[in-house]
Amino acid sequence: MSASPALEAHALCKRYNDVVIVDHVDFAAEAGRITVIIGPNGAGKTTLFNCLSGVETIDAGNVRHRGDDVTGWSSDALSRRGLARTFQRSSVFPTLTVADNLCVCAENRTRRGIMRGVIGLSDPASRSSRQTVRRVLAELGLTALADVPAGRLPTGTLRIVEVGRALCANPDTLLLDEPASGLDDAETEKFHQLLHRLAGRDLAVVMVEHDLELVVDTADVVYVMAEGRIVVSGPPSEVLIRADVQTRLFGRPT
Amino acid sequence: MTSGLDVVGLRAGYGVVEALHGVTLSFPLGSVVALLGRNGAGKSTLLRTLAGIVPVSSGRIAWRGRDITRVPPDQRVRAGLTTIPDDPNVFAGLSVADNLGVFGHGAPTDTVFDVFPELRDKKSQPAGTLSGGERQMLALARLLLTPGEALLLDEASRGLAAGAIERLYAVIGDLATPERAIVVVEQYHADILQRADLVYVLARGAVAWVGEPGELKGGTLPAAFA
Amino acid sequence: MLMLELALAGLGIGAIAALAGLGLLVTYRLTGVFNLAFGAIAMSAAYLQWQAVRVWHWPVAVAAVVVLLVVCPLFGVLLERVVFRPLQRRAAAPAERLVASLGVFVVLLGVAVLVWGAQARLDAPSLVPYRQLPLPGGVQLPLSTAVDLAVILLVGVALVLGLRTRLGQRVRAVVEQRELAELQGLDANRVAALGWVIGCVLAGVAGILMAPTLRLEPYGLTLVMLETMAVVVVARLTSPFRAILAGLVIGVSQAELARVHPTGHAGPLFDTLTSNLFVVALLLALLIVHRFDETGSTDSGTTARLTSRGALTPIRGWWLVPALTLAAPLLFNAENRRLALAVPALAIVLVSIVVVSGYSGQISLGQAGFAGLGALFAARLAAGTMPGFGHVPGVAVLALAPLLVVPIGLLLGWPAIRRRGLFLALTTFAFSVAVSRFVFDQPSVTSGLTIRPPHAFGTDNNFYVLELLCLAGAFLLVRNLHNGRVGRALVAVRDDEPGALASGVDVRRLKLLVFAASAGLAALGGALLAMGSRAFDTSAFDPIRGLIWFAAVVVFGIDSAPGAVIGAGVLVALDAGLPEGSSILVIGVCAFLLGRMPGGLLHSVHRFIDHSLRRRGASVRDLVPIAGPRPARLTSAGRSVALMMQRRTAAR
């Protein structure tokens, strides 16, 4: 195992006005592992994701990506660094085709070449971008939809497009916010296989997920989050059977 | 079974794209009907058409014997159709309390906080600042405030944690009375199949399979699912 | 007591500003539309009142009742029914609603000029008898100001209390998410109509109260509203009391400052600042305020839904239409060709709007400012009076002037990094107003300027060819911005900014780039416009002109550069063939009807052709991938944990 985890956070805090949403969270995701964050609604899971991926600013604490301090980095810079994410509510580009959706991410892995495009020169990396897009489309079974404008697709399919887009960043760390919600059974099953393939390629996969079956089937490490704090973490077989976790997940909050 | 919500030869879609190619089905009073199918099968479109948001290009919708095919959405609500849409499901700029005011037409809201205590402390917060699951809870508050005689739920359990899903199904169980037709669109088959009286499977904009949940349980689903 | 008396006089101005700003704010809260036509509606009501009292000799009170309680409400219902309902129904982008209200503005203004003429009338009937109220301290307050203040307070309180009622909740729900509101059983049409009725009555009240103090004149009264935008911005579109306070404070400060006359160089500048205090306040407010509380969905401000990408099959050879539009003038006679010189120049200006607002979704209402600066710089460079530059020869002016405007575009692009939608629209508009007031209106800057085509292109024919070359160059740049990596990234920013960021797109740099490019293009177009007409005419680059240009681009298809060329051709032809101002009226009527032609005029024509070509559409059937047989869902591990969980919960 390498010295530092792919993504790690220390004493992360986030407040809105006076409400503490994320409260001194310590978190680590290893390469080649699937790390899942579970917890009741409103526990702060999505906000934690937003802090990790640079979408929201952090009030205290720090984030390290592959050992480097990336606290305060913007989300586009993190994406170019190899930390890609999807959103809970679809953020695909509806007027672009599926292939172009993926292409945006593939060709912005570096900032170089933008000005070349403005003066009409071709992008030197365009061939490798196209190849990445083709590979990811094939891997996700989206090849048939490549030329369909994304706005015309059902929501479940959009989630897969979004995962595909994140994969086009050639990420080493992948943050997925409820990726399986809205997927039908066949898609969930395929998605499950995809996750294992990605972990097999030494990606660090981090997910927020409510579908406990999927969690049990896929997770290597589970973090249980409640009221902004990490309650417990560990392998699912140990974590999920704990009485306090069951109360958090199934009991009525008081 | 009493005649509830009946759909005959329904065709509908968005602009040039037709999503429902002649769907005939009925949701009788006193039953919980599960509407299943793959993504893009037309489940949401069917619900939106029943609610009156997507215009009908041909076919007929009747509610308790009365033709409502051309009735505007707000009048359908007053006739007893309650739709909880997928997205947007809440008024993001309004506070939680104001959302409940609009949902419940001013009815007292204590029952909502009994079932979804997560929302209690957030009454004055804009709904847009809630998490995805909390928004869904807020949307579901309508079931507790002003449930009509036909409930159309589009992926009601989406984004909810396991505990909240159980509470949701308990509410649905309480609402399943002989005078009411409940239609549940879900991806989560195992749960809904335990509660449903009847299952429709849509595939590519048409009804592919009708039956009782027992016929689906345990084994693999019909090939029409694919 | 001079100060106190001045303060009271300022209170009168401030009360008017607060009344107008408050009306705008209330209309926005109740309808979700930033109603640019608010001033025009007020002006029309004031004219109707004048007509009834001065021409038909009705008693003032009767006339006011008829205008405010019959005509204004009816107009509100009409607006909702004809203009805004279709827009709301298809959840049109805020830019479309803004442009539709601009359409109303233009049409009302046109009608007023047609019926009552452009001259000012000084005998606007006053609702309030002229009387001075004695105040302690020996000063007097005009009764009209007191009435204004009372009305303002009443409206503010009514808004705050009203929005808290059940009806208020419903109104907000409909403004926020119309479809969801209908699913709650609300009659959204009626609720929206109520909002428009209240908005129009308020505009009427403002107009009738203001007309006696200000002059009754179509343009003046309409534009007063644009000046009072500062009040609305300070209130962040939300707080009526902040709006009132801001209006009063600015009014009083203006009156007090008018007393001070510094000598020397600073004198004229100070006077300009004082007399334009509302513009200064608007700029300051836009810098200080960080966020608006906008109504409606979170994506407000993107123009994404205006676009037509991929929805229709392209018609082969349709580019011939703009090409022929541009080629035709080469065959015209001398007089007509002189008129046609404006077409390519205007096309470049319109294309600059397509770039910034169509491709990347940033609403920019400030293009008139850039175009005017382009013309100004070109004139001064050619005359050798540009500070820091000597005499710049011929064609080099056309390259240098836009380059000098580009940094200013970068400057305006800076606020655009954080701002979207209405906020950005107002910021850019304020820029244009500021440039117009503080640069173009300064005699020391613009008086005696002449400009003519470069010597080698002196004849109209040659100059037209030069213009076409410039347009070709512009199109080359536009193509690079629309295609390939840059184009995709821009559309990504327009469609979903968080998504674009997550995809690694450097949104900040891209926005600066697009604002800079657009400013440069507008400057080039402006310079050519001025050269073609052989004069630097400040009224050609008036902020209102910028609004009309934006409306024209939306009408002709906001993401269509060829559409912009056709639009320029149509505008110039209409103005040449028909009485002056008719092009504006046509654009106004089209904007008025945007609800019925989504995506603009050309797109609607295109869709009509598309529909008649293929009767039956595609179906979702074509879109969904065919998958193999469905695998079983529960794995053994999953099933056992599920069972385990169930047992646990049952036991509790």
Describe the structure.
The complex is a heterotrimer of chains A (254), B (226) and C (652). Chain A is an alpha/beta fold and 254 residues long. In chain A, 37% of the residues lie in helices and 23% in strands. Chain A contains 10 helices and 10 strands. Chain A is globular, with a radius of gyration of 18 Å. Chain B has helices spanning 43-51, 73-78, 96-104, 110-115, 132-145, 162-175, 189-195, 213-216, and strands spanning 5-14, 17-27, 31-37, 56-63, 66-67, 81-84, 150-154, 181-185, 198-203, 206-211. In chain B, α5 runs parallel beside α6 (162-175). The mean pLDDT of chain B is 86. The relative contact order of chain B is 0.19. Chain B has one domain (31-55, 70-219): P-loop containing nucleotide triphosphate hydrolases (Rossmann fold, 3-Layer(aba) Sandwich). The two termini of chain B are 31 Å apart. In chain B, the strands form 2 sheets. Chain B has a 6-stranded mixed β-sheet with strand order 6-7-8-3-9-10, sandwiched between helices. Chain B has 226 residues and is of the alpha/beta class. Chain C has 3 domains: 2-127 and 137-271, ABC transporter involved in vitamin B12 uptake, BtuC (Orthogonal Bundle), CATH 1.10.3470; 331-579, Orthogonal Bundle (ABC transporter involved in vitamin B12 uptake, BtuC); 604-625 and 633-651, no CATH class. Helices cover 69% and strands 1% of the residues of chain C. Chain C contains 29 helices and 2 strands. In chain C, α2 packs parallel to α4. Chain C is globular and about 70 Å long. The B-C interface holds B 13, 15-19, 21, 38-42, 51-53, 72-74, 77-78, 83, 85, 88-94, 98, 101-103, 105-106, 128, 142, 162, 166, 189-190, 204-205, 220-221, 223, 225-226 and C 166, 169-170, 172-173, 176-177, 179-188, 293, 295-298, 311, 611, 617-621, 623-624, 626-630, 632-634, 642, 645, 649.
